[in-house]
Amino acid sequence: xxxxxxxxxxxxxxxxxxxxxxxxxxxxxxxxxxxxxxxxxxxxxxxxxxxxxxxxxxxxxxxxxxxxxxxxxxxxxxxxxxxxxxxxxxxxxxxxxxxxxxxxxxxxxxxxxxxxxxxxxxxxxxxxxxxxxxxxxxxxxxxxxxxxxxxxxxxxxxxxxxxxxxxxxxxxxxxxxxxxxxxxxxxxxxxxxxxxxxxxxxxxxxxxxxxxxxxxxxxxxxxxxxxxxxxxxxxxxxxxxxxxxx
Length: 246
Ligand SMILES: Nc1ncnc2c1ncn2[C@@H]1O[C@H](COP(=O)(O)OP(=O)(O)OP(=O)(O)O)[C@@H](O)[C@H]1O
Ligand SMILES: [Mg+2]
Prior knowledge:
Elements: E1 6-19, E2 22-35, E3 39-43, H1 50-57, E4 65-70, E5 73-74, H2 80-90, E6 91-94, H3 106-116, H4 123-133, H5 149-161, E7 167-171, H6 179-196, E8 199-203, H7 207-212, E9 215-220, E10 223-224, H8 233-237
């Protein structure tokens, strides 16, 4: 059984979809543990199943088989009403294309998850605090088209974190940004992770970003590649050191 410091525990996850009269197996048995506070980079070629896996971890999609425990809750077969609750309380998600609502201001975009969660009372104040935290205190009333790409991603990050989730999932969050802006967004995520004690799982194509993470796992054709350890850093450190034979 996973230790209590394990915040994501995925065992033998598969995801298959019907395609005409055939079936495509997108994930073919993924086992993964992520520890609280860890920053995990998820890499792999296009089509290897990274976004599909992130969707399962986020509770946006349901595995075909296998089990998934998020922050102590088995979400594998939760009814949608309860799953939505877990998603809202525990998980923030950020995408490559920022997915902001164009007609709303930055502040209103950040408020949206609070309305879903019926915590609207202090919505404005909470959204303003969050936007200040991501460095956008002077952009509260701008609409997405009035913001740069990096600023839009900051709004998306503020929105992802407004319910104070313990886990931030990010799918290529710097994929649409130039290197400098991307680096600034990464630095922001790193700072927020420390300040808020977040666990971060980030899909990336960039080997430099992957190396900056605590640990990298690599997907290839729906499977995690052998050789890269899929256990958290502490579990690996606890391994007894091989005795040197004399
Ligand atoms: N709804 C769907 N219907 C059919 N095939 C799908 C569907 N969603 C994903 N796939 C297929 O599953 C495979 C994995 O897709 P996924 O989006 O997870 O890859 P990825 O690793 O995120 O790729 P990229 O780096 O390009 O974003 C791909 O071959 C994709 O075509
Ligand atoms: Mg993808």
